[in-house]
Amino acid sequence: MFTGIVEELGEVVAVEQLEDASRFRLRGPLVTEGARHGDSIAVNGVCLTVVESGDGEFTADVMAETLRRSSLGALEPGSRVNLERPMAVGGRLGGHIVQGHVDGTGTVLERTPSEHWELVRVGLPAALARYVVEKGSITVDGVSLTVVEVGDDWFTISLIPTTLALTTLGHKGPGAPVNLEVDVIAKYVERLLGPNAQETGK
């Protein structure tokens, strides 16, 4: 489990295209410290498994399903990425519960700068819109954020200077894709209150 508090702005070193997957080599000296084969690291909000690590870099295999559901397929050498290690047992939950299971991708629509923050409007896939609520939590490229406003197919977020400086969200302009993970609690509530609950009269 992750918290959506990015630890490091890393970089894609190499991408190897396989028949039905891709292998990424990424640089992240902080998140690879003590990393071993089989450990998890979130890359732009996608939970990936470490295959090899050393010298501040790690490799991870990305299967076709992940490439289809996320924006990782658009990454190339030199791309910057948000990196986060899983939360340790007993650690602080600084953001919100983030699984690293991307639900889909959105698109940056516009950015409105202010003196101390920046308002960003993000296009939202119709299938995810029902899970996004004003003042609720959403993960954008692995960053835990609070929703400011919600439309039928968009939402806005406010980015503070720290987020602008230390994550990919400070550099993505209109048209850029972003990974989205909605609040998992909302999905469980929907499931519990769906047709099965109605059939039992609850």
Q: Shape, please?
A: globular
Note the total helix count.
5
Structural class: mainly beta
The topology string of helices and strands comes to EEEEEHEEEHEEEHEHH
List low-pLDDT spans.
198-202
Concise overview:
The chain has 202 residues and is mainly beta. It contains five helices and twelve strands.
Primary descriptors:
single chain, 202 residues, mainly beta, Elongation Factor Tu (Ef-tu), domain 3, 2 domains, six-stranded antiparallel β-barrel, 5 helices, globular
Mind explaining what this structure looks like?
Pathway: Cofactor biosynthesis; riboflavin biosynthesis; riboflavin from 2-hydroxy-3-oxobutyl phosphate and 5-amino-6-(D-ribitylamino)uracil: step 2/2. Lumazine-binding repeats lie at residues 1-96, 97-193. Its EC number is 2.5.1.9. By secondary structure, this protein is mainly beta. It has 2 domains: 8-84, Beta Barrel (Elongation Factor Tu (Ef-tu), domain 3); 104-189, Elongation Factor Tu (Ef-tu), domain 3 (Beta Barrel), CATH 2.40.30. It has helices at residues 64-69, 126-129, 161-166, 184-192, 195-199; strands spanning 8-17, 21-27, 40-43, 46-54, 57-63, 80-84, 104-113, 118-123, 137-140, 143-150, 154-159, 177-182. The strands form 2 sheets. The protein has a 6-stranded antiparallel beta barrel with strand order 1-2-5-4-3-6. It has a 6-stranded antiparallel β-barrel with strand order 7-8-11-10-9-12.
